[in-house]
Amino acid sequence: MMEELNNLLNESLSPHVVSFEFDKLAKNIMEQQLVITVVPCKSYYKNEKLQELLEQKNKLWNNKQFAEAARVHQQLKHKLKELEKDDDTTIFTESSRFEKDENIITAYLDLSNPNLNLLKTLVENYGLKI
Predict the structure, then answer these.
(1) Which of 39, 40, 43, 59 could make a disulfide contact with 93, Cβ separation 3.0–4.6 Å?
(2) Dihedral sign, Cα of residue 71, residue 73, residue 78, residue 79
(3) Which are the contacts of 116, defined by CB distance < 8 A and separation ≥ 6?
(4) Within this chain, do residues 25 and 9 fall inside the same structural domain, yes or no?
(5) Pair 20, 41: CB distance under 8 Å
(6) Would you say the pTM of this structure is higher than 0.85?
(7) What would the pLDDT profile of 3-35 be if each residue is shown by its tens digit?
């Protein structure tokens, strides 16, 4: 089952295939009385100033301070334009994956990917989320 879940992370799959395959897996997950916790993959910059701005923007966004978050996002974009393109200015995102520990499946998902955001929604709609 874990292999099938991880196969759903393939970016070439259509949303229809992701939904259809998850439906089959969800029945198995429910029968085994497993639950899923969704953890967003972390994104980060190697450049400390960029990372600081990213963290500030995310904190404001999570606190629903959208106007302020948009202002910080503009600062981040401006700072990126100032800096030479290299590994320090590239945003890195942890790999998406599913892991199982006893009766809990942890889904580490890059929610900027539409299919992975769909998986998060499916987990919630099937009532599998803890």
Answers:
(1) 43
(2) positive
(3) 9, 96, 109, 110
(4) yes
(5) no
(6) no
(7) 999 999 998 999 999 999 999 999 999 999 999
